[in-house]
Amino acid sequence: MGLTNQSTGAGVLQNELKLERVTPDDKVIALSGNPNVGKSTVFNSLTGLNQHTGNWPGKTVTNAQGKYRHKDRNFIMVDIPGTYSLMANSVEEEIARDFVCFGDPDAVVVVTDATCLERNLNLVLQTLEITDRVVVCVNLIDEAKRKKISINCEELSKRLGVPAIPTNARSKKGLNELMDAVYAVANKEIPLNPIKITYDEAIEQAIKMLQPKIWQMIDGKINNRWVALKLLDGDETILNSINKYLGFDLLNDIELLDLLNKAKLYLTENGIEPEQLRDKIVSRLVTVAEELSRDTVTFENKQYNGMDRKIDSILTSKVFGLPIMLALLAFVFWLTIEGANLPSSLLADFLFGIEEKLSKLFISFNSPVWLHDILVLGIFRTLAWVVSVMLPPMAIFFPLFTLLEDLGYLPRVAFNLDNFFKKACAHGKQALTMCMGFGCNAAGVIGCRIIDSPRERMIAILTNNFVPCNGRFPTLIAMSIIFIGGAVGGAFQSVVSTLAVTGVVLIGILMTLLVSKILSKTILKGIPSSFTLELPPYRKPQIGRILVRSIFDRTLFVLGRAVAIAAPAGLVIWIMANITVNDISLLTYAADFLDPFGRMLGMDGYIIMAFILGLPANEIVIPIIIMSYMASGTMLELDELEDLRQLLVANGWTWLTGLCVMLFSLMHFPCGTTLWTIKKETQSTKWTFASFAIPTIAGIAVCFIVANAARLLGFA
Amino acid sequence: MNDKTIPLKCLPLGKKAKVKLLISDGIIRRRMLDLGLIPDTIVEAVQKSPSGDPTAYYIRGAVMALRSEEADKILVEMT
User: In DSSP terms, which residues pair with B22 in a beta bridge?
Assistant: First the structure.
């Protein structure tokens, strides 16, 4: 899901790239390609930068960059969004095109999928129309071999007129040759003779009418033949981009405008209406790609993707599709709940052991009592709690989730759920951005850029928070174990807890659909826009890579964020709990004030305050609740969940409290980072406020109904 | 157009057909063209979503899911 230290949390906000060549000899390389062709794997293998790869379309939504050194040169590699085309039909395509055009790359590497080269060649041809300096990376060559597809890269290279290098980035095969070719192209060491795509005679004539004038105006900064074609095509986005990056408006020039009108008239006279031009251009590219593929690719086995179809016929079947999806989700939760218990208590023992040593250290230094209390009892204990409760579930949950992603299962989820989203008048890709939200809502909000329609993108942004991010999973899991599973007890405890967490996630998905529907019938009226989704081939997962990436990129990153926020929060709470007015602490005053409201929702004042103080990060809600309940102002040593249960029960919690905390955790205002991201993405205070209010109101309503219904019916 | 011409959405699973005409316009048409759906392209219906829509089609070596609204605007001829 592309959750990395770059793409989660505050890191997601930097999207405008500034490229700085450290020395003038440094080369800038753009890395482009269709979605899901292993582009990020190539990027990671070359640059070593931790950019996470997932097997689903449209993962890279902004330009990421990394560096590598080959021979005597430094190369700055920019990973541009995966697109099928550079015709600027969507924001990603625009970003990709703009970088190839105006980012001034010394070479463009187009990564292609050897198992479906023909479709990929379309992008190669479009790139070659813009620049000569292209290297084609024919990736996933081993996958192709397995499917008995062979590719004659020499012939392909000859026909395209630029190097075509077979690679298997996952096993680093061919990467040296790729770097050699990039080196040669970027340093202009080999002659390039790119294929010339010619169109109908009339189109060629029209291009010629514009070319000299454009050449004169843009001074060869971008390919004038291509600009001429775009102008004829009436592509306004390229005009905007030229204005933005080169600083002038082509159509302000009367002479060019005049030429353009003449050329368009010429086309019409020759039977090519404006709307037919695009068809002709695209058809030509597709036909050339088809010819190239026919001459360079051999399929020894016509049924080469039979296995994928068989798997799909089960995973997306009418009978089993949805049940398997739910079962997988539940299985992931179950493994997480079952597996996290033991390491959690071991970690807690270990960390609280350190605390004793720390205390002794402070005493040996004769430090003042308040300092010891603040640092050790306030900050360290909070951290110890956060780490021991959060780390084990994340270390299990993330690799499992990454595994599903790596296999290529997520597009199937989108495929299975699309009809529900369509009925909610939302975009099919919202299923994917929703899945991203399971990792981090801020990343999910950024991911909404894959949705082109502004209306549907806004719906996806506003509802992303209805799926619990990993900051909220520990809360959900702890509550379900203590109050739902615990109430049942015995052998079925973890099964019941699993069902409870799965149930809450399902409620989240239902709320996503319901709120999407309400939004599209009220303030965001409209009909669903077009939707195409690729179901990529299943890939053999790379277990080692999954473990490394999910532990380092996701687990440690999320944990780091939690720790960074929990430490100061621990301090604030310690202070609030220890400053007293009339013998009552500030914390108690605040909680008492919120208490009537909390009771109405089946919770209490401390819990509501914890949610409010948890605004910077959802991870710290439970720790704050615990700290608040400590009369002394510090947390007890909570070795295991049983201790936590006793503490909560002693403070008046029942199963209903647990349930309402789960529901409110699922539905309340997004965390600070997510809100900030929404503000950045929507450029609107109004919509940011809506994203705050919608889930909060939903949560208040649901908790109110549940709590009062349970009380009326005498269940609690 | 002859009798064998049907909208793509009516193509039964497992059957192949040849694209004859795109009747969509604007951005949807561009999307379809980007997928390589130009006249004479062979398309095969391979899989339906559990709820019956969208349907996945095999197009030029890739499997693409299209909603019925889009598939309705692609006229094909059964082969």
Answer: B74
Query: What is the chain A residue with the closest CA to B59?
Result: A119
Which residue in A279, A308, A317 is closest to B50 by CB distance?
Answer: A317
Whether the CB-CB separation of A141 and A173 falls below 8 Å is answered with yes
Residue A275 contacts B, CB cutoff 8 Å: yes
Beta carbons within 10 angstroms of residue A362's beta carbon: 17
Q: Per-domain residue ranges for chain B?
A: 5-78
Q: Is A279 on the interface with B (CB under 8 A)?
A: yes
- In this predicted structure, what is the pLDDT of residue B1? 52
Q: Which amino acid is at A162?
A: V
Strands A580-581 and A297-299, how do they pair? unpaired
Please judge whether B62 and A119 are an interchain contact, meaning their C-beta atoms are less than 8 angstroms apart.
Answer: yes
Q: In this complex, how many residue pairs, one in chain A and one in chain B, have their CB atoms less than 8 Å apart?
A: 128
pLDDT, mean over chain B: 89
- Taking contacts as CB-CB distances below 8 angstroms, the residues of chain B near A286 are 33, 36, 38, 41, 60
Instruction: For residue range B34-55, list pLDDT tens digits in order.
Output: 888 999 999 999 999 998 889 9
pLDDT value of residue A164: 96
Residues from chain A that touch B22, judged by Cβ atoms under 8 A, are 279
Is A26:A76 a contact under the CB 8 Å cutoff? yes
Instruction: Tell me whether A280 touches chain B (CB under 8 Å).
Output: no
- List, as one string, the DSSP characters of A497-526: HHHHHHHHHHHHHHHHHHHHHHHHHTTT--
List chain A residues with pLDDT less than 70.
1-22, 49-63, 553-554, 558, 561-562, 630-641, 716
The pLDDT score that the predictor gives to residue A578 is 81
Interface test with A, best of B9, B20, B30, B48 (most A CBs within 10 A): B30
H-helix segments, A297-320: 306-315
SS3 of residue A252 by DSSP: helix
Contact B61, B50 (CB under 8 A): no
Task: Please give the distance of CA A621 from its chain centroid, rounded to a whole number.
Answer: 24
Quick one: which H or E segment has residue A121? helix A117-130
CATH architecture of B5-78: Roll (2.30)
**Bond from prior residue into A454 cis (ω within 30 degrees of 0):** no
Which domains can be identified in chain A, with CATH numbers?
Answer: 9-186 (3.40.50.300), 201-271 (no CATH), 321-525+560-712 (no CATH)
Strand-pair category, A73-79 with A27-33: parallel
Alpha carbon distance A331, A328 (integer Å): 5
Angle in degrees, CA A447, A451, A452, rounded to 5 = 135
The three-class DSSP label of residue A527 is coil
CA gap B76, B79 in Å, rounded: 9
Q: Give the SS3 label for residue A540.
A: coil
Q: In the prediction, which pLDDT does A56 show?
A: 45
Q: What angle do CA A346, A352, A356 make, to 5 degrees?
A: 140
User: Which residue in A15, A157, A174 sits closest to A95, CA to CA?
Assistant: A15
- Taking only residues 24 to 63 of chain B, the set having a beta carbon closer than 8 angstroms to any beta carbon of chain A reads 24-25, 27-31, 33-36, 38-39, 41, 46-54, 56, 59-63
pLDDT of residue A57: 47
Contact indicator for A144, A223 with CB cutoff of 8 Å: no
